[in-house]
Write a sequence for this structure.
């Protein structure tokens, strides 16, 4: 039986989950899976901190370097987060001949090129199922289950905090601030939720999905990123009237101009399968050239769901341990080809526009004149009941138009004296999934 | 690079798909996956038959035995269907030291014990992703992605024909016969759809999911099986009034009395995620003790989706080829433990009852008396407007009650002179998924 020694970095939420699963289910893994895991060392920042799990103090160290360099360690499991120290430790682990399992999406999104190339040189594995979609086996599905396919598109709800907030705003009409407060009370949002709300967390995950789904290197900065902060309950209500829900989507589509890659609040038809993914759940909808649509849905965060993914990586390594050879290089390291990412300004989409207009005769004429002069044609339009002289919301849904044109038009609109405040702009996705 | 020689049995819908993927994408598999597949021999029943793909006639043979015994063949891919000849060929292939990939659910459901034990003895792999859920990587997810979990329940829509028919009946009010005709025109139903409509096809797939999801042997006959033939558009309309959709579900739940395993038409709340899986799509909702709910959704049938799964199995074998050892025995062969399946008569459920009652004074009293005398309590009840003397439908939803009691009660009801025809009985599932 393959015995494998684990060096664990970090004993927080996920680390505790990993420790408890591997210790509580030791027999099951040994008897039914044929894998025997044991912890060699566990590095923590603060010895005396209260833990969720009882760990023999002999295993605990505050010297993480001693863990990644311990000759008896086969696999280093990095769960400390952040990018600076984590990068040093992960690269040192690989140089010391260890395989690496990590849940660190920021690290892989920012330093993926360096890490995967080092792993390829060292013929070691870097596994990271837990870095995207928590307990959902989306990485394994991309790399193994769908190996016969080339992806043509990928639409993902991969930030639980944003999805929880948007769901609350949709089902209860809560405004953004209250929904965020609720999410923090429920533990779905961190005390500093910036990376969740500005879309960066989703962009990190999308960078990883693109690297392996579309097989090539991708620069994080090339991914256009917009968060949900500017979405109002008003927008959600208006979208609803037109038959749409608003979701924060991570999108990657193969186009003649390269990969169209973005994270953005998006209007989805109510009957779209992703429009019905609610609360803190995550979902990834992929379209493969042979398999068609595939959707994976589950818990995108939480101690045990994420630990479940980390453990599946550890078991995958243990099962193949000492039998890796070029497989590790070819299929586990990413392709060396650099993917061309299409600039946001050239994408084509339908748009939802919300303006506040002073209601005077001839106002609509002015506005449609501006749109027309930018070759933007309107598919739907709604104005609320008229209160003379005061600003009323005007909702416009456009036909397909490119981003550059819409931005020029919106600048022009915002300069009109009859338009008060800035125009709200949200993209619409109609397709992908039935 | 690992070169692997394939012996293909059958060149129908799926076989042609597999041939075209592996030949059209040969470069991609060689360069990006590091796997080089070639066809050694392809066995067909009828040489002269018109094929979807152009195959060099030198590869074609009508002697399938020569394929499974060809010393140059590494993997035998069985796509002929049926259980008799397929069993002989698959076992002969294993005895000749080949790995086996099959899409044959009937074969694995009926002969799984023998086949997996032989594979374990021969230290060879039997892969079968395509046997359940077409292109959806559900087997890989169960065995690898969710390896850290014990399943507590599994709810699956795994018969596309039934789901297409029920969807048509629900969305268009079509009756069963017309919906079936439409399914056959669309190619979603075979000319002889018996195994789809009576639930056996779903039961075959459920037997495979249970074997690997709950890790043990299971007898096909132990799985209670009911099809959709007796579902009327009337039932779908009434269910709708109570807020339910009717779906053909394959269900497996861990209970103190063993695994509760059944295939049955089921009332699901409209907001249940499986209630929104429509048309010919399949979906499997699993609950793991660590990961919680996981849903996989995609095309359950079709030449390319199914071929996509077959190819992923071939690649999995190719990547590990000559490096199998006990992994093949322990994690690829099923557990030798025999699972205890709970008898249907002892399951507890809520029930939908539809009776046609002659509308006379005191009729309801009689009916509720019968239910009461069997300790069955009613949660909802609906009777359509009264036409004196004629039979009118009476719909009753019960609270949780066990199957034995409901059957006794229904027998008693059907003997009442005021009840015309047989009482319709459909189980209700409230939980599983949010």
């Amino acid at each position: 039986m393959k015995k494998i020694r684990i060096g664990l970095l970090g004993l927080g939420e996920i680390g505790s989950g990993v420790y408890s699963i591997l210790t509580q289910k030791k027999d099951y893994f040994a008897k039914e899976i044929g894998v025997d895991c044991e912890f060699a060392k566990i590095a923590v920042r603060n010895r005396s901190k209260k833990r969720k799990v009882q760990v023999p103090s002999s295993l605990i160290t505050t010297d993480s370097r001693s863990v990644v360099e311990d000759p008896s360690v086969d696999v280093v499991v990095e769960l400390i987060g952040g990018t600076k120290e984590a990068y040093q430790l992960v690269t040192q682990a690989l140089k010391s001949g260890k395989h690496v399992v990590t849940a660190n999406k920021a690290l892989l999104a920012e330093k993926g090129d360096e890490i995967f190339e080092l792993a390829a040189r060292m013929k070691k594995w870097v596994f990271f199922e837990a870095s995207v979609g928590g307990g959902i086996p989306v990485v394994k599905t991309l790399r193994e289950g769908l190996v016969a396919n080339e992806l043509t598109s990928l639409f993902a709800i991969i930030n639980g905090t944003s999805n929880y907030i948007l769901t609350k705003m949709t089902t209860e009409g809560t405004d953004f601030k209250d929904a965020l407060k609720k999410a923090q009370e429920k533990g779905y949002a961190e005390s500093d939720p910036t990376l969740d709300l500005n879309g960066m967390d989703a962009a990190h995950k999308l960078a990883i999905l693109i690297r392996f789904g579309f097989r090539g290197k991708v620069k994080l900065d090339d991914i256009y990123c917009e968060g949900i902060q500017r979405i109002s309950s008003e927008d959600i209500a208006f979208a609803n009237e037109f038959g749409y829900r608003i979701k924060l989507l991570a999108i990657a589509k193969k186009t003649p101009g390269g990969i169209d890659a973005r994270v953005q609040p998006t209007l989805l038809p109510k009957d779209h399968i992703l429009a019905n993914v609610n609360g803190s759940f995550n979902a990834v909808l992929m379209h493969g050239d042979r398999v068609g649509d595939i959707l994976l849905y589950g818990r995108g965060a939480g101690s045990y769901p994420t630990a479940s993914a980390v453990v599946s990586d550890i078991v995958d390594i243990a099962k193949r341990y000492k039998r890796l050879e070029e497989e590790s290089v070819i299929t586990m390291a990413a392709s060396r080809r650099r993917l061309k990412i299409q600039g946001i300004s050239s994408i084509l989409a339908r748009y939802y526009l919300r303006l506040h207009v002073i209601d005077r005769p001839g106002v609509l004429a002015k506005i449609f004149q501006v749109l027309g002069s930018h070759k933007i044609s309107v598919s739907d339009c709604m104005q609320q009941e008229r209160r003379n002289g005061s600003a009323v919301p005007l909702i416009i849904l456009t036909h397909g138009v490119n981003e550059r044109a819409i931005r020029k038009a919106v600048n022009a609109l915002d300069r009109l004296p009859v338009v008060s405040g800035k125009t709200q702009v949200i993209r619409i996705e109609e397709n992908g999934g039935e």
